[in-house]
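Exercise 7. Given the components listed, write out the predicted structure of the assembled complex. Treat all entries as one system.
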Amino acid sequence: MHAVLLIAVANLKRKKGQSLMVGSIVTLSVLLLFTGLNLIREIETPFEQMYSKQRGSHLVLEFDTRIYRPNDVKSWWIARPEVLSVTDTFECLEMRETAYFNGVELSTFFNIAERSLNPTVHDDLRIIKGEPSTYPESGSVWIPSALANSSSMVPGDILEIPTAEGLQPFIVSAVIVDPRNSAPFGNPTMIWITPGELAYYFPLSRLNEVMFGVRLKNPNDTDSVWSEFIDHLDGIYSGKILTYKDIVYRYTAPFGIMAVMLIAFSVLALLVTGFTIYGGITSSILADFKVIGILRAQGFRPDDVRYVYQIQYFLLALVAVPIGLLAGIFVVQTSLTLLMSSTGESVSFSILLIPAVATLIVFLIAIYALVGWVARRAEAVQPADAIRYGAASETKKQSSGLSIQRLSALSVPLIIALKSMFQQRRRVLFLGITVIFTTLAGSLAVDLNHTFTYMMDDLALFGFDGGDVRVTRGGKRFSIRHEQFMEEMNQRDDVVAIATWDFMEATVMLDDGSGTEKLSGTLIDGDVEGADFRIMAGRNPVSPNETALAVNSAKTYSKEVGDSIRFYLNGHEQSLEVVGIYQSINNGGQGFRLLLDTLRAANPLAAPIQYTIVLADNVDPQQFMTDLEAKYGEAVDAQLANHFIKDQMTAIMKAMRMTNGFLAIIFLSASAIVIFNSTLMTIAENRQMFGILKTVGMTPNQLRQSVVYGVVVQAIIAIVISLFVWQIIATSLLSVLFSGIGLVDFPLQHDYLATMVMVPLILMVCFLSAWFPSGRLLELNPKNLIVE
Amino acid sequence: MKQQVQSNYLRFIQTFMFMAILVPGAARADIDPTIKTDIDEFLVEHLRTIPVPGFSVVIARGNDIVFQQGYGLEVVNESSPMTSDSSIAIGSLTKSFTAVAVMQLVEQGKVELDQSIQIYLPWFETADRRAKDITVRHLLINASGIPSEDRWLYSRDISESAIEKGVRALRNNRLVRTPGESFQYSNENWSILGAMITEITGMPYSLYLQKHVLNPLEMTRSTTSLDRFEDMNVLYGHHPDVDSVTPAKPRFLASALPAGSELRVSAKDMGHYLLMLLNGGKYKREQLLMPESVEALHEPSIDFVVNMPDLGAIGQQASYGMGWIVMEMDNRTVVHHGGDAIVMGSWTLLDLEQGAAASILYGGPTLDPYRFPAKIWVVNNLLHLLNGKPITSAGLPVDTDPTANDYHLPQTLLDRYVGTYLSESGYRMQTKKSSDGQSLITQVKPGDIRHFGKLDFISESSAVSRNISGAAVINFIITPGQQVTGAVGGRVGGTWQKRDDTLLTNLRESGSADGSVAFLLPTNWTIEWTDNNFIAHHSTDTEIQIQGHMSGSAAAKLVEKLKYGLSDSKLIGDVQHRSESLGNFLWEQVMWGTQENDNVTHQLEAFTEAAGRTYQISATTRYGDLTRLAREVLNPILMDFEFEPQGPLEHEH
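Answer.
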């Protein structure tokens, strides 16, 4: 066994290039898999750490004190055995107007709450920027870290908040991590002011809301305790509730998709690793055929020969896997710290240690087993034949299948490159697969980025509508009626279609009689098809007893086209036929569409105030809006269709770009390493041939070209294949990934321009990865080589 | 009882219409007696059809006042007849007077229409720093982009500096439109112009208007100055009820808004104004404005859409001049403007092609256009009658009442809507059964304004609150359990929470011995009364205290005293001030914090007025507790506060 170990170590030393290549690939796939798995596993860790340290609430109740007595409600919760603690009652107020920072309107709405004079029993606020204090000073405000991050606000800045007397400047005195309110996608978001000062700035009549938080001994009890509370209130709670589940979702949901993407790509990376190992061993067996024969002749059993390879790759993995794991730990820590920066927490090394050890063991076993399986070929080597004939001659005899006559029009280096490619098909395969995956990762990055950017131009793809301009009908004194406005818009040449898109709320009566649930939806009317309210299955409603459901609502209520659903609208119960199902990114794919006439059955005077307008092709939306407001004055207020979603999308796309960029870089690195090593191996294995070619008159540069051309040709073929594959699989793949947020039929938009930029970039990396190692050919001395 | 009062009132009106009191007018030119009779009969008939107790009219043609007369009574159920000398609040028609004043300054070279307003009011600023883009013309044509918030509408600041203070407060507002690009009707525009007039001339707006517009026009019974109201015996108008009117209290006014809506004018005086407008700015020998300036006032400058049944226009395109609306009516271009001072109103229409104009001044609220002929219909037809033409329907609604319906709510459901609804804006809406138990009545009393309405249900969740001023839709929020938990809309709008009466068990009623003052107080508070004054505190926490005190001082003076008198004390932060309608009263509020050694306290003073008395409520609490105190104690007190002073004024403190 000692001999086996010595030979394995000697092999590693002897085949440095191959060892480096295989080791690098293993390292990269470990890095990718570890990162993906641990991102998804640990995505909640910074949140949980923060929530644990700052003792966050598992339930937050906010209600109108004209409906419930705060003490009565609190007493019920305090008496529950599942409850650990209940906070003070905080005075709070929900704003309907937006605030301004540096003269720019913020898209986030605020809940303003007064901090307690004394530290609370839980829901601690951690000041990460600003002077430590128990509560904000008079006239100042504490803002959550997510708001500070997204708007680049720091202590000392002035936040203008609309109060009873117009905009009131508040000094930002601290940036805090607020357990419940530091999620980057939370809207509205809570900001804190000094105790007692809501009464300073806001009308007394609006000071009716209070909130308090409940921390449970076991967060898993949240649903059951809440259910008991609802029963206590005879089935109806008229306040607002934020549960632990909601809070976790706000913090982590957008990043979960990215982690899933990483895992999907790490599976691809594992395949690359497998192929690389397979190719490496197969080529080694062929190269070492005589040696194997000699070893067998000297008494090595077939198993011993296999062990040589198993130990050789095990030792390689023993080095490569920990490197990948260390890099993975670094990437996971950095990514989570960045993605969850609003929590102010980082993931400690110790948390990732056990998964790292587990990954190490799994990888070592897997590689050992894989190598054992591949190396069975070595067991079959017959000593006599191997010593006499070897296998290298077989390899050398392997025909390229190419006729030089046919290639005579090409340059000599290119002909050599092509011949070499056809002679080393396995290596070509590995390199090709790597480049394919790199291109796939790049395509994912550019197309996802493009799709979400394109969303700004075509909201209809994402479940909204296809309008160019959104108009709100208003006017304090001079207004216009719904029917009149619709008629006038329909008569305009520059308007292609107009439809309403009022948000509304309905109560869904659950089929099993277990209660009701509130659901937000859209009131559509007018030229629904013209306004491009797209539908996935069935059609949009056309009569008052019909509705269309958003895809996740259809799932939630187990409805399909043709089923009926009971809505409670404005005091009127209506059974509506589900005639269509549409996908929508809005509200996590939850919602419904119904017609104005449906609502008018309950409220005969209901009139929409929000419209979407599709403009003719040559009409400038900005000019249209200006003209519209000039004509109707205060009766209308027009904005570009994407105005309301722009800010939210910016945050999502920032995170998306980060993940996709990481993926693309990893795969690009993998390609570079594979090509680098492959080139070194090619040169090492064909030194004699290159020596001969040099002797017969080829210049060092031509020799170099013969290597580099081969790589470039392989890369081009791989890129073409991957682009083709991406066209076929992309939509299905992304639909699976994004179904959770309502995009079950992902509206992928290919970015051909960016792809045209990406392809040369990948080619350039491939070229350079081959060019640099091919420099060794310049050092070749034909005399020595021919003697060898 | 109420029905009896109403039927007495209707009998009185019916009797009165035949009397058609003719008051000696100032007509200087005779018109055909037949035409005069037609006009008179037309107006008598109009009086008969409306629930407003009286109005006055004036018609001018060329250089002459051809008709001026009052009809009906100044105050319902009283004896004083409405005459052409009765001074009535004309509401937004005041804007045209302010425009005249500005154009005078333009002619004097003191103002350029297209200069930034900041040239004349350097201190004027908006929150988005776009004030510099607003020109004088933008303000005159309602195109500055300043939103119409009417925050000062309920202000009790009666000082001459009220306009400036109001305009300075706009520094906290952002524009909602790009200046000059589109029409946004806003009283604030006119207050800025009022402040500009003061800044340029060194005279308060009211004084400038008096000296340079009203006096030259011999408008002796017209003013924006509160000081003259009593001497001139101005009218205070009427609140709308379900089928009748109730006299308004003699104090409703918005002091920061005189340049936009607070001029009192008599019909006779209005005649002088019309003559000036019809004669190229000349009245008798006074050339108040050059003809070009008058033309500029009536020049269509910016478009908007009119959707007002009381204008007989649904979606009709119109333009705004400077304080005037320009639009097509009966196939001719007319220049007109109305004014709604809530409890009074007016409408004036100029037919510049004919060289004639007419005004009507109402001693009562604007009326439901689907039930009563609108003021613009009256003035338009006065001009038709003057020309011997038949009456037209222009100005009457072109559609049927969209709220008309034949739905009947089952009687058994009435009870669930009954209760008190509290709005986010501080209003309280009472919904109760009518005396016969067959229908529901809603009542909202924001400040000095009152809204009564009978609920006409159009479905189980939607109803229309009807009174003589029109219909307001209320959508009730009903849970699947058939409970009514709130409402949306109504005459003052917004979202309403229905108060859970079981919460009232935490409150008890408290009042002064003579019944002048009463309110609800938490049961865990103790209170001591001395006459109409009280001291209340938490039963176990004496650091939190509320005091009430009645005095004769005007609330505004006390507010000024507090706001500026506190400057030398050990204040923490700024003194905050606001006006807020809570329950049945308008409350001026001043809030501040002070520090003495380590002892920090918050204080809130709230003032309201009734019958010339001020009631002051002072709340003192330790640092950090003011909002809770406001929510738990002050809100119930102020929301249910009743204040009906009796006896002579007390000695002022």
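Discussion: The first helix of chain B runs from residue 2 to 19. Residues 17 and 44 of chain B are 6 Å apart (CA to CA).
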